[in-house]
């Protein structure tokens, strides 16, 4: 059963590995492990481009048959100091150019309030900065994606929901958002927001909320936490999402182990989650059709 606007069959799902998941592995080692595990794409960190250059990164990924899927992420566009803001904007524009050269979108986390910058001013600065970057991206044929963060990380992003991210990008005709299941699962109105986002959701980051002690922000592999990631992914499929599903795990506990084994486990968990999501979305679609 096909999903309207989505992939025709579960096998058509495109699964990418975000480099941050194996943060301590060299680029070539991580890319080989990703390809051997079954991933089709690879999300690149700015640090990899700084070390290898765009051509070097492309060479490594081409050698493994992996498609680059994003440059993720540039963090922090705002600051109380105009000089610092100008410096960060210049750096973001360089990252945007690198992403465009690699043929992928730049994912941006906008930055958050601090003691010297209240939430309202932080939001206004973020809106201005995103508007400028959207204009730059449109001129250069680049693509800019805004990633909202969980409210517990508001100091890193004043955009803490899908609705916030959509508001920031609606100033331009281009641009989109990243939906990270770890960051957005808490939202009681998430399903409606995902339907509203539609085609402006370009990439989905897969990870789960670990049911651990309060204050522990380690992530779990999808399907191993309490965020009901398959249901979120099913809603995305129902909304017509057909882009890259990018596995992104940040976990001190998992990083302390064998990170090549982590790459393999990441693919297996992502595949199980997406197969379950596809089944859930297909059943929903069948039910809707039967009611018509």
Give a quick set of tags describing it.
292 residues, alpha/beta, 8-stranded parallel beta barrel, 10 strands, disordered C terminus
What does this structure look like?
The protein starts with 13 loop residues before the first strand and ends with a helix. α4 links the parallel β4 and β5 (144-146). α3 packs parallel to α4. It is of the alpha/beta class and 292 residues long. The chain has helices at residues 27-37, 46-64, 82-102, 119-140, 162-169, 181-184, 190-197, 229-238, 252-255, 259-291; strands spanning 14-18, 41-44, 67-75, 106-109, 144-146, 176-180, 201-206, 208-209, 219-220, 244-247. Mean pLDDT is 92; it is low at 287-292.
Helix content: 40-55%
Q: What is the alpha-carbon Rg in Å?
A: 18 Å
Query: Gap between N and C termini, in Å?
Result: 17 Å
- Alpha-beta classification: alpha/beta
For the secondary structure, the number of strands is: 10
Counting H and I runs of at least 4 residues, what is the number of helices? Answer: 10
Q: Report the order of strands and helices.
A: EHEHEHEHEHEHHEEEHEHH
Strand content: 15-25%
- Return the average pLDDT rounded to an integer: 92
Strands of the widest sheet, in order across it, are 1-2-3-4-5-6-7-10
> Tell me, what's the shape?
globular
Reported for the largest beta sheet, the result is: 8 strands, parallel, barrel
Low-confidence stretches: 287-292
């Amino acid at each position: 059963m096909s999903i309207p606007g989505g992939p025709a069959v579960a096998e058509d799902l495109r699964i990418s590995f975000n480099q941050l998941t194996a943060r301590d592995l060299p680029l070539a080692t991580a890319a080989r492990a990703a390809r051997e595990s079954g991933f089709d794409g690879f999300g690149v960190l700015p640090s990899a481009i700084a070390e290898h250059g765009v051509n070097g990164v492309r060479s490594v990924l081409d050698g493994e048959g992996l498609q680059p899927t994003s440059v993720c992420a540039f963090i922090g566009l705002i600051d109380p100091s105009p000089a610092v803001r100008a410096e960060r904007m210049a750096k973001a524009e360089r990252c945007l150019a690198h992403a465009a050269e690699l043929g992928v979108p730049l994912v941006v986390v906008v930055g958050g309030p601090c003691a010297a910058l209240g939430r309202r001013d932080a939001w206004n600065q973020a809106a201005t900065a995103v508007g400028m970057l959207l204009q730059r991206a449109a001129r250069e044929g680049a693509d800019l994606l805004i990633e909202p963060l969980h409210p517990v990380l508001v100091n890193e992003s004043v955009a803490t929901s899908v609705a916030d991210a959509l508001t920031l990008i609606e100033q331009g005709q281009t641009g989109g958002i990243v939906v990270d299941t770890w960051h957005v699962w808490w939202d009681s109105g998430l399903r409606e927001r995902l339907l509203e986002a539609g085609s402006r959701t370009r990439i989905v980051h897969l990870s789960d909320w670990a049911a651990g002690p309060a204050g522990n922000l380690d992530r779990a592999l999808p399907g191993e936490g309490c965020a009901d990631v398959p249901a979120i992914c099913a809603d995305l499929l129902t909304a017509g999402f057909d882009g890259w599903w990018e596995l992104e795990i940040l976990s001190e506990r998992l990083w302390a182990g064998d990170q090549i084994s982590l790459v393999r486990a990441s693919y297996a968990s992502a595949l199980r989650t997406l197969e379950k999501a596809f089944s859930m979305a297909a059943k929903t679609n069948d039910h809707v059709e039967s009611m018509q």
